[in-house]
């Protein structure tokens, strides 16, 4: 299948590592030019060098904190200046801290709001002037918590669900411009974030990390954690020219974990 990604211009947030980097790598391999983004310049430089070896599209990077309004504005401006346009946007951010409701402060809530919801609003708003003339594809990264709340992750359960509502609303408002926008909800994909959450559980329960991982994987019908690469392939289809009619949907990539309809 031709994904029609050659020479497409993409901005992928939180892309110096993890799922964002995997998505960026898949886009580059398919011929897209990609702007990498994170707060860590050394990791961005390493990621750019690695992705450039794939032999596909052009790779650039910008150091930015997506929680900062000024940084987001500069990011969109620089991407437009270097690439001339933005065809693809991946809104992504690190996960908020784990914790139960009574353990969290106002500062925790405000941080998660800026990181996991308002940053998406600002990135989409900034990309629209580039997309409205020629159309485009947007994917908002969330979590399976939007379908089935995850115990101990009340911040994610709250703000990721807000992103799903934003996506559904914008799918209607942006459709006249040929802009397709979808939500992708990763399950237990083998990243540093999953190791962090599993380690916290192991510490709380006083058991080895391996025991928590074995239990966790046993809950997944496919019997294992997903890989960033196979997750990225699903996302890149939604971002590609092969997707011409899917918008306002939520794609759950979780190996069958979530039981909600």
Automatic annotation (TrEMBL):
Cross-referenced CDD domains: BKR_like_SDR_like
Annotated InterPro entries: NAD(P)-bd_dom_sf (IPR036291), SDR (IPR050259), SDR_fam (IPR002347)
Family: Belongs to the short-chain dehydrogenases/reductases (SDR) family.
PANTHER family documented for this protein: 3-OXOACYL-(ACYL-CARRIER-PROTEIN) REDUCTASE (PTHR42879), NADPH-DEPENDENT REDUCTASE BACG (PTHR42879:SF6)
Name of the protein described by the UniProt record: SDR family oxidoreductase
SUPFAM superfamilies with a match to the protein in the record: NAD(P)-binding Rossmann-fold domains (SSF51735)
Organism (species): Paenibacillus terreus
Origin: domain of life: Bacteria
Taxonomy of the source species: Bacteria, Bacillati, Bacillota, Bacilli, Bacillales
């Amino acid at each position: 299948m031709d994904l029609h990604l050659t020479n497409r211009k993409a901005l992928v947030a939180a892309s110096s590592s993890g799922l964002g980097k995997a998505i960026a790598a898949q886009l580059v391999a398919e011929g897209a030019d990609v702007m990498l983004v994170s707060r860590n310049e050394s990791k961005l430089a390493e990621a750019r060098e690695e992705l450039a070896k794939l032999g596909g599209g052009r790779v650039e990077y910008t150091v930015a904190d997506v929680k900062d309004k000024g940084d987001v504005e500069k990011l969109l401006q620089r991407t437009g200046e270097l690439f001339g346009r933005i065809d693809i946007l991946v809104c992504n951010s690190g996960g908020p801290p784990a914790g139960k409701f009574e353990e969290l402060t106002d500062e925790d809530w405000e941080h998660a709001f800026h990181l996991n919801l308002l940053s998406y609003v600002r990135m989409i708003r900034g990309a629209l002037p580039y997309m409205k003339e020629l159309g485009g594809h947007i994917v908002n990264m969330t979590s399976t918590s939007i379908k089935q709340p995850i115990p101990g992750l009340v911040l994610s359960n709250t703000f990721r669900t807000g992103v799903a509502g934003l996506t559904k609303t914008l799918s209607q408002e942006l459709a006249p411009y040929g802009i397709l926008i979808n939500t992708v909800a990763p399950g237990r994909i083998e990243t540093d974030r999953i190791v962090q959450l599993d380690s916290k559980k192991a510490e709380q329960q006083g058991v080895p990390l391996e025991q928590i991982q074995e239990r966790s994987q046993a809950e997944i019908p496919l019997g294992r954690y997903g890989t960033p690469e196979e997750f990225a392939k699903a996302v890149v289809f939604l971002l590609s020219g092969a997707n011409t009619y899917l918008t306002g949907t939520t794609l759950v990539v979780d190996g069958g974990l979530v039981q909600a309809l």
